[in-house]
Fold this protein.
Amino acid sequence: MGTVNCLQRQGVSRIYLHLDVDVIDAALAPANEFAPEGGLSPKDIIDIIAAVAEQFTVAAATVASYDPTWDHKDCILQAATQFLITVASTRSLEPN
């Protein structure tokens, strides 16, 4: 969490959260043609979002790098939707 501490020392209190969904392990479901195996799980990403939101106000967020032609079972779509719901739910939280 060295980066978090550095940002806080610089007075950062609000962040822009950008998530490329091709960081999700392609073995679970590929987000696009570039998605590698060995990436993060959707739970890992939700945990990261929650940890970031504990320290900073999420001022804006995006989800990118999604190609639905690769997401045959809508797994990435469902995960991305959950990520955005998680971000939206943090809007009621005050960072520490």
User: Anything to note?
Assistant: The radius of gyration is 14 Å. The chain has a mean pLDDT of 91. The first strand starts at residue 14 and ends at 20. The chain has one domain: 14-90.
